[in-house]
Amino acid sequence: MRISTSTIYESGGARISDLQVGLNKTQQQIAAGRRVLTPEDDPIASARALVISQSDSLNTQFATNRQSAKNNLSVSESVLSNVTDTLHNIKSLIVQAGNGTFSDAERGYVAQELQGNLDQLMGLANSTDGTGNYLFSGFSTTVAPYTKKLGGATYNGDQGQRYLQVDTSRQLPLSGAGTAIFENIRTSPGQFNVQSNPSNVGAAVAAATINTATSGSLTGNNYEVAFDNLGTSFTVTNKTTGAVVVPLTPYVSGSTVTVDGIDLKITDSGGPPVVAPGPGDKFSVQPGNQNLFETVTDIINALNTPANTVAAKKDLNAALTQGNNNIDKSLNNVLTVRAQLGTSLKEIDDLDSEGDAKSVAYKQDLSALLDLDYAKAITELNQQQTTLQAAQQSFVKTSGLSLFDYIR
């Protein structure tokens, strides 16, 4: 059989080219440290590696989310820690103000210090997370939660709660509405907290409910029902604004007076014997659900009111006692939220540990699928180089053979 010169060159060149391609591929694998450079190298391993890489990327994103949540929750915890310290300071001042030897001027100094604490609480309630987003506005992160008003503060946010995905099946709340922290101070199980003055000499009973038809007129302010020196007529004063909202009105047991969306009803005690209101008797009417700013403002107003008589001092003591109880309830709100924040931070630490373990496992799986066995690859490289050199030398020898060489 005769083999043409062109066939010898074509087959030899193709063989050398194939060997060169194999050698180049091995060199690329060694340079990259990867066994699988393209999906055609190992389709099954490539598909599996793609799934693991996606899971690893998702795990990395969850770790980033957890760090963001941790930063946000840590800021909230720090703010509420300062709120707790401020509330403890307020309680100390209330106890100090109850000193019976204090003059009106000395109580005024305490009121000034309480005003400073109130301003501090307002600033803490309007804290941001460091990026300009308010912590306690719900979804309305660009709106300051509270603004001052006469008698306390107004909440401007909403009731939304923002969440962040920190694991495949877990979302953590970043913050809550300010109402859950600084408000919801239940002073009474009913709609209003109605208290008789400690200096009352009569035994009448007062009650307050929301008037449905005029509920839009509710102010959230504090009111006082005060009887005249005969106990036969009364006035109603908005203690927050100081305005008399019901002028002197004759008292009729069981009759109802409606003012600012509130139905006020005063009745003689049941007896026997039946006891009517006494001269100068008073009843305080507060919302059954107060906020912290209203409570502190009420205490400040009470301290700024002269207490030069026995009755005035009883009024002051009653206001301080009620204010102290409300501060305790508010402190419970804050501590409850802080406990929730601490639980979330602990959960983030646990999820971080789990996420780190997943990351290590994913990288080990990818290494097993894609990484190169250097010993095997270098051995194969040496073999390919030897084979290529032999093929090149053999091609040179073969291509040089001809009839003329034989004759010569």
Task: Please give a structural write-up.
- This protein is an alpha+beta fold and about 400 residues long.
- The chain folds into 2 domains: about 35-185 and about 295-370, Up-down Bundle (f41 fragment of flagellin, N-terminal domain); about 190-285, no CATH class.
- Helix content is about 50%, strand content about 15%.
- It contains 8 helices and 14 strands.
- It has helices at about 5-30, 45-95, 105-125, 180, 290-305, 310-370, 375-400, 405, and strands at about 145-150, 150-155, 165, 170-175, 185, 190-195, 205-210, 225, 235-240, 245-250, 255-260, 260-265, 280-285, 290.
- Helix 2 (about 45-95) packs antiparallel against helix 3, helix 2 (about 45-95) runs antiparallel to helix 6 and helix 3 packs antiparallel against helix 5.
- About 25% of the residues are buried.
- The model has no long low-confidence stretch (mean pLDDT about 85).
Q: Which features characterize this protein?
A:
single chain, 408 residues, alpha+beta, f41 fragment of flagellin, N-terminal domain, 2 domains, five-stranded antiparallel beta sheet, 14 strands, 52% helix, rod-shaped
